[in-house]
Amino acid sequence: MKNPGDFLLLFPPPLPLAQNGLFRRSGPGGKAVEKLIEIEGLTKRFGAFTAVDGVTFTVGRGEVLGFLGPNGAGKSTTMKMLAGFVVPSAGRARLAGHDVQKDTVAARRMLGYLPEGAPLYPEMTVRAFLHFIARVRGFAGSEAARRVGRALELANLEGVRELPIETLSKGFKRRVGLAQALLHDPPILVLDEPTDGLDPNQKHEVRTLINQMAPNKAIIISTHILEEVEAVCSRAIIIARGRVIADAPPAELARRHPSGSLEESFRALTTAPLAEAA
């Protein structure tokens, strides 16, 4: 197993949230909303192929953004650039005012990230793994134990906490990944398919948890489950062929199709030529 020090860039120790320098925009009723996620012109090219093409949006505290698109649209690449794991070809991203490329460690302190196929140590027990994450995040003693206990509770993992991760079902492994993202109570969460592999009851628990956390955080959820977007997201962005083609509340997106269905609206938008979709 690698030394915990090797993971400091992935899981940097906590830092108080900086308030200065954050842009603000008007929310419902003219109330100021703190912009915690800012993406400007984010682009990623792989040779001649452009995977992400000038993506721009912001997410404020209290918003849950559903990040939608067909396979290969650029969703995961965008999220990886936002988390600092992929270097953009152009553009920039900021987390709580920290530039992801120029101030990477400070930016990652603000972030809880659940990537697709979250890396886990299969031979470790759930509790041991979360204690490991707590240590590399800079927590020790009773504070580490408190953080681990709270993460186990939030992800509903108490019943499997002493089991090796390799013995768990896909759904439980996904919840372990979610627990590590929540452990340091970050103001920003980026969750790639958070309910992948979960049964209906587990999905309901995760959606309830997201709704409970939403008022105090900025949350991005990438998912193919449109009913999940309607259940937990206050806003949805649809991306196709690397470009943002729609940005609106889920109910408004649904109304754009004569059927009033979000699924039908998604299909129409993502199969239309880009100029028509825009």
| Through-space gap between termini | 49 Å
* Major sheet characteristics: 6 strands, mixed
Average pLDDT, rounded to a whole number, is 88
Give unreliable regions as ranges.
1-9, 15-26
Query: Going across the major beta sheet, what is the strand order?
Result: 7-8-9-4-10-11
Briefly say what this structure is.
The protein has helices at residues 75-83, 104-109, 126-136, 141-154, 170-182, 200-213, 226-232, 250-255, 262-271, 274-277, and strands spanning 24-26, 32-46, 49-60, 64-68, 90-95, 98-99, 111-114, 188-192, 218-222, 235-240, 243-248.
Q: Could you describe the 3D structure shown?
A:
This protein has 278 residues and is α/β, with parallel strands linked by helices. The protein is 34% helix and 25% strand. The strands form two sheets. The chain has a six-stranded mixed sheet, with helices on both faces. Helix 3 packs across helix 4 and helix 4 (141-154) packs across helix 5. The longest helix is centred in the middle third of the chain and has 14 residues, at 141-154. It is globular. It starts with 23 loop residues before the first strand and ends with a helix.
Key terms:
about 280 residues, alpha/beta, six-stranded mixed sheet, five-stranded antiparallel sheet, 11 strands, globular, disordered N terminus
Q: What is the secondary structure topology, with strand pairs?
A:
Layout: E1 24-26, E2 32-46, E3 49-60, E4 64-68, H1 75-83, E5 90-95, E6 98-99, H2 104-109, E7 111-114, H3 126-136, H4 141-154, H5 170-182, E8 188-192, H6 200-213, E9 218-222, H7 226-232, E10 235-240, E11 243-248, H8 250-255, H9 262-271, H10 274-277
Parallel strand pairs: 4-9, 4-10, 7-8, 8-9
Antiparallel strand pairs: 1-2, 2-3, 2-5, 5-6, 10-11
Helix pairs in contact: 3-4, 4-5
